[in-house]
Amino acid sequence: MKASDLFIKCLEAEGVEYIFGLPGEETNDLAISISNSSKIKFVLTRHEQGAAFMADVYGRLTHKVGLCMSTLGPGTTNLTTGVANANMDRSPLLAITGQTNTDQLHKESHQNMDPITMFKPITKWRWSMRNADSIPEIIRRAFKIALEEKGGAVHLELPQDISKKESAIKPIKPEEALRAMPNKDLISKAVKMILESSLPIILIGNGCIRKNAANALRRFVECTGICSVNTFMAKGVISDKSNRHLQTIGIKEADYALVAIKKSDLVIAIGYDLVEYSPRNWNSNLKKNIIHIDFTPAEVDTYYPPTIEIAADIEYTIEAILNELENKIHAEENIRNTPDLEGIGYRETLPELFKKIKKEVTWRIDRFSRDTSYPIKPEKLIVDVRNILSENDIVISDVGAHKLWIAKVYNTYAPNTCLITNGFCSMGFALPGAIAAQLVKPKQKVVAICGDGGFLMNVQELETAVRLKLPIIVVIWCDSDFGMISLKQSMEFGRTAFTRFTNPDFVKLAESFGATGYKVKNTQEFRRTLEKAMDSVSIPVIIAIDVDYSRNNILLEDSNSLRI
Ligand SMILES: Cc1ncc(C[n+]2csc(CCOP(=O)(O)OP(=O)(O)O)c2C)c(N)n1
Q1: Residue 474 has pLDDT above 80, yes or no
Q2: Ligand 1, residues at Cβ distance < 6 Å
Q3: Ligand 1 centroid vs 422 CA: distance in angstroms?
Q4: Cα–Cα distances in Å, from 421 out to 190, 368, 400?
């Protein structure tokens, strides 16, 4: 078999459905192999960065490896931002790049640079293929590493001459990996610590989303009565409707989730990733007891010294803790002959402080829901989006001040329904991300929320969305400014520099691509416009709206009006 055909057969054996990419001479063999007989769909993008973001979001939503492909040189350098984003956000991604013939690589030759070195800091593993017979092993290895906890990006390079070689080797079938059981002694110690704690709290991180542990987590909160908080990337693991869930940590203004952690004596950190939120924020005096539960051992950080560290499958660990808690409760009940859960494991009454916190968080989200001032207030806009979307519809945030508002205000009820990049945090993520999300979840509405800065970073993918007939909705927050940066400049230096720009006419821009465009001119109109956009079945809709950024400073102020 021709090597490029074998390469594609190996991808098929891994269950690949889509490759997002942009062709070049050096990937032509692969392109023809895909188009000849493969079931894999090639999604043509208008920039390699868009392809990488699509692969990233595909990985987040499916828990499978997302694929992007580019040619050598400039195609490869264009991939890097999206690849780095997936890697730092722990999304499984495989970047495939073409290369010139291997007999040209040792010398100056057209478009030839060294991508393997370039990808080193932004991938978990990378390899340039040098013979056809190794393709099955190399591809299997790449998928395994991308999916191993913590997930991330891998890169494979296929030089043009290798893709034309012949091989008789067969693809390797992937085996399901065994899930690691937790150590029993550590479970007993963790249970003892939970029972002895006066005010425990669960800190939920994105590992719980990646590994589908939401059901186990929900059971844990329900059965123990312990309250929880989540990081940006773990929104929806516990529904924001739960009165035991104190919502999202990490936004300065009235960061009640942080207050809750600060007052707790035990933090049960589950799937918590330090890249998202530094433990220095909540353990600066090193006084907390910490139970670390994740697939991998804890990262080293002065402010994160776990008292107990359980590196095993999250779901199994939680089940084991719950079983042990139940056994303890029964044993205690037998001794005392009274079926009283209180004080043994289950915390029936919600601590007064946590009750107040939940009330305050909810009030802050809803307080402008009837406000009609224009430009629209961030809270009002987000609550309108929430009220119009169904529980399982998907919001994807770009990066900027709007991201902090979304993290803070957008109530999330199911995992993977509010996607935020909070590791690498690259602008330009949301529009291509929405395209991948809509392909993977055709029955769910997908709304990308962008700043006017970030939207234009990958605006070319609007053509991809139109061509694919995807009814995604993009809401653009207009302030003609890199809002997050001018905010930081004003707060630190008292003035701004190099952040202002002008916007195109977003309606005309959308229409010129074949999409629908609206410019909302008053606050009441936003809801109606969004409802209209929800009816689209095959055309992307752009909604531009002026947003009131005058209160953005509260996103960065530490002590602002803490009413508790
Ligand atoms: C690719 C990239 N470039 C620069 C930054 C730094 N940065 C973070 S937020 C931001 C401003 C975003 O502006 P906009 O998209 O208009 O959103 P807003 O902050 O106004 O809500 C910038 C420049 C980044 N995160 N990613």
Answers
A1: yes
A2: 398-402, 425-428, 451-454, 477, 479, 481-485
A3: 13
A4: 31, 26, 11
Atom 8 of ligand 1, residue of closest alpha carbon: 400
Scan for tokens 């186990």, then name that residue.
Answer: 216
Which of ligand 1's atoms lies nearest the C-alpha of 483?
A: 20
Q: Where are the alpha helices (DSSP H) in 38-167?
A: 48-62, 74-88, 115-119, 135-147, 160-163
Which residues are CB-neighbours of 442 under 8 A, at least 6 positions away?
A: none
Query: In angstroms, rounded to a whole number, what is the distance separating the alpha carbons of residues 69 and 41?
Result: 12
Distance CA 433, CA 142 (A): 23
The alpha carbon of 432 and the centre of ligand 1 are apart by a number of angstroms equal to: 16
How many residues appear in the chain? 564
Structure tokens at 301: 């950080």
Residues whose CB falls within 8 Å of the CB of residue 467, separated by 6 or more in sequence, listed in order: 44
Asked which of 128-142, 163-177, 321-335, 487-501 is least confident by mean pLDDT, the reply is: 321-335
CB 539 within 8 A of CB 512: no
Per-residue pLDDT of 223-248, as tens digits, reads 999 999 999 999 999 999 999 999 99
pLDDT of residue 338: 47
Tokens at residue 331, please?
């044993």
Per-residue pLDDT reduced to its tens digit, 317-364: 999 999 999 888 777 766 655 444 444 456 778 999 999 999 999 998
Distance between Cα 473 and ligand 1 center (Å)? 20
For the beta carbon of residue 193, count every other beta carbon within 10 angstroms: 18
- Give me ligand 1 centre to Cα 32, in Å: 38
Residue 189 burial by CB count (10 A; 0-12/13-18/19+): exposed, middle or buried?
Answer: middle
Residue 192 CA to ligand 1 centre (angstroms)? 46
What integer pLDDT is reported at residue 341 of this predicted model?
45
Q: For residue 546, which of 516, 527, 526, 517 has the smallest C-alpha distance?
A: 526
Residue 514 backbone zone (phi > 0: left; psi -120 to 50: alpha; other: beta): left
Instruction: Return d(Cα 7, Cα 171) in angstroms, integer.
Output: 8
Angle among Cα 337, 342, 348 to the nearest 5 degrees reads: 140
Q: What is the pLDDT of residues 392-416, one digit of tens each?
A: 999 999 999 999 999 999 999 999 9
Provide the angle, in degrees to the nearest 10, between the axes of the packed helices 74-88 and 48-62.
Answer: 30
The preferred substitution site among 484, 489, 499, 550 for testing ligand 1, maximizing ligand atoms within 8 Å of CB, is 484
Beta strands, E only, 431-540:
446-451, 473-478, 516-520
% of residues, the chain, pLDDT over 90: 89
| Pocket probe mutation, ligand 1, options 47, 85, 405, 482, max atoms within 8 Å of Cβ | 482
Q: How far is the CA of 245 from the centre of ligand 1 (A)?
A: 30
Which amino acid belongs to residue 385?
A: V
